[in-house]
Write a structure and sequence with these properties.
Elements lengths: L3 E5 L3 H12 L4 E5 L2 H11 L3 E5 L7 H10 L8 E5 L4 H10 L2 E4 L4 H14 L5
Parallel strand pairs: 1-2, 1-3, 3-4, 4-5
Length: 126
């Protein structure tokens, strides 16, 4: 089974960069541009991992993650936060709900490695 990754960010250029970088790994990549769409995609597409920006329109990434963690069918999906926010409070808050936190601009090689680690360890989301 091909691992499915949900990329959630409101910047299309950033999404395209991630898609380009991850495409060679054979992942099934799906996209959402806001928090509400991210919740819908997570519920219907059942990704194996979510790359989630914090600053999103409609519903921020922290709230999205909290909602996902409360629902039985999405609570075990690994989440990696990605954000230009660098404050300790943001990182600590994100760490309470996610498997990792990456500061933008991302170290794409480190992100690829972490994705591989989480997908290898993650239970099937299906």
């Amino acid at each position: 089974m091909v691992p499915r990754i949900l990329i959630v960010d409101d910047e299309n250029d950033f999404i395209e960069l991630l898609q380009y970088k991850l495409a060679g790994h054979g992942y099934d990549l799906i996209v959402a541009n806001d928090g509400i769409h991210a919740l819908s995609q997570a519920r219907t597409q059942k990704p194996n991992l979510i790359l989630l920006d914090i600053l999103l329109p409609d519903l921020d990434g922290l709230s999205v993650c909290e909602i996902l963690r409360r629902q039985p069918n999405t609570k075990k999906i690994p989440v990696i936060f990605m954000s230009a926010l660098t404050g300790d409070i943001t990182k600590r808050t994100a760490a309470m709900h996610a498997e990792d936190f990456f500061t933008k601009p991302l170290d794409l090689n480190r992100l690829e490695k972490r994705i591989g680690e989480l997908l290898h360890l993650a239970p099937s989301a299906n």
